[in-house]
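Human: Not sure, check this?
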Amino acid sequence: MTKIKLCGLKEERHIRWANEARCDYIGFVFAPSRRHVSFEKAKELRMLLSPSILPVGVFADAPIEEILSLCRASIISLVQLHGTEEESYIQELRKQCQLPIIKAIDATDKTALRLGLDSSADYVLLDAKKGGSGVSFDWELTKTCTRPFFLAGGLHPRNLEEAITKTRAYAVDLSSGLEEGGEKTRGRMLEATRIAHAL
């Protein structure tokens, strides 16, 4: 069964739909984005989340103390780094935070992909250059990945089965593909989770 992360959730109804879908992870975006949530809002939403779903905090070149504050408040269960964080940053974060780390990699950049695969992060996330843009990439590039990975970039219910079948990703990560007119929909969240869990 492929795991699935529903990312960019920022409203109570999003959490209700995630609970109904029984996804594996949800993402709170703390990086600059139209899907950004505040510390206070994420804490409120975290209380509504099913215990079986793990909340992931998404950051981009954030001060380590910002991440630690969310860890200490038990708002997130995993840390996703979506900026230009280098190995030294990951090592320093790991010294102070015991949560699993996901490092996003630009799968379209062969050098970045090669270096990223050696990351000490617990997981890598293969994405197009700009995360959250809804832009896909050539899934053939994932064949060089020799470790479990999250697949992101332009995924939606219509191409999800093909993406999973071709890449054999450990998990898939959807955000804009769950939206219609820029808004998350219950139907897309439920359908995407159903497809992932069937494969």
Notes: The radius of gyration is 15 Å. The longest strand covers residues 54-59. The mean pLDDT is 93. Helices lie at 12-21, 39-46, 64-72, 87-96, 110-116, 160-167, 186-197.
